[in-house]
Amino acid sequence: MTTQTEEYYVDTLITHVDDKEIMWIEFKDDDSTEETIANLFHLKETVISYKDPDNPVLKLPGDVNAQIGQYVTKYQGKFHKLGYHEEVKKYALTYDD
Prior knowledge:
Blueprint: E1 2-5, E2 8-17, E3 20-26, H1 31-40, E4 47-49, E5 57-60, E6 64-67, E7 71-75, E8 78-81, H2 85-88
């Protein structure tokens, strides 16, 4: 699903845990996604490692690292990631190709 957050569009999926809706954001190496992740998760900045320029890695607090295509969220104060697009479809209660 594509969700508009302020002036940006990012790829998201929605899951539910304990009757709470959780928005996961697909990590892409673009300004829109980086800005949205920083804003939604209240980060001063996003940290992306370009040690391997072909495979950037998003580095989140708590040693959570996500590669392009993985979904990230912050739930109960901790960061989490899911796998890639095809893997996570089974977890999404709301999914739109």
